[in-house]
Amino acid sequence: MRVRIIFLLKNKGGYVPFHHQYLLAQLIKGLILQGGDRKYRDFVNYNFSGLKGQTKISRNGLHYYSSRITLVLSSSDKDFIDYLLKVLFTYDQVEVGNLVMVPEFVEEEKMPEITEATKFICISPLVLLKPEFNDSTAKSFISPTSDQFSDMLYESTIYRMEQEGSFTQEQLSSFYKFQVVPDRGYLNKIREGQKKFARIYPLFDQDVKYEVRGYTFPFTLYAAREVQEFIFSNGLGSCTHKGFGMLDIANSDPTQRAARYELEGVPTRTPQQHQRQSQSQDQD
């Protein structure tokens, strides 16, 4: 499931680095540990977006000027989502980079209709390889149009589905259909504009800094519906709990899938408030 966490921004113009997933990963890990539930201490089956809001670019990074900022958090484990939200809303405010944000309310993002051929966009970079200490392999470039690219994503997906424990071995064996087909028109346009769809990003684990190569481009995934839904809830590729590999459906407005999220101690909002919020963001 996915939830949209909306924060009030106390310091308009505050900023974070262009890639701030590692800061969000630190915040989420801190909340997990602060909650004190040992069951989730090493839990990794979740995914999250970057911070969404109206931004301007400077040498320091991304400056946010909207009154509210949204973070999308996703996991197939609803109990984990509830746990994290309850911990988050015990705080009057949280800081990410230079931003000071007040948790305001939460809404659920309903699962869209997914078929065995789904076009996705990357709303956070897609990482193929888990980094290792003193090893630069995770920075290697692998062409998205190659079979190797699809094979690596398939292997990591089936492994994560197996570790999650909701699928039988018979089911996992039946999920052999898996092919990532990049939007070649997009890739050609990026190359012609001398832009990049693959960059090196920082990642921290146990206070050690790593670097990984992340890819950002639209693609069509051919796979069983169960595999598609798992990926939509938990991310695709490696390091998903570090904020990589979050996807969304192409040509779809996620705010149209938003609904009330009922959880004691966590504020929600009515459809009327949702409409006023959308109008307010359009004016900011």
Automatic annotation (TrEMBL):
CDD domains: Cas6_I-like (cd21140). Residues 263-284 are annotated as: Disordered. InterPro entries: Cas_Cas6_C, CRISPR-assoc_prot_Cas6, CRISPR-assoc_prot_Cas6_N_sf. One of its GO terms (molecular function) is hydrolase activity, acting on ester bonds. Pfam families: Cas_Cas6_C (PF01881). Keywords: Antiviral defense, RNA-binding. Residues 110-249 form the CRISPR associated protein Cas6 C-terminal domain. Residues 267-284 have a biased composition (Low complexity). GO terms for biological process: defense response to virus. Transmembrane segments: none annotated. Belongs to the CRISPR-associated protein Cas6/Cse3/CasE family. This is CRISPR associated protein Cas6 C-terminal domain-containing protein. It comes from Cesiribacter andamanensis AMV16.
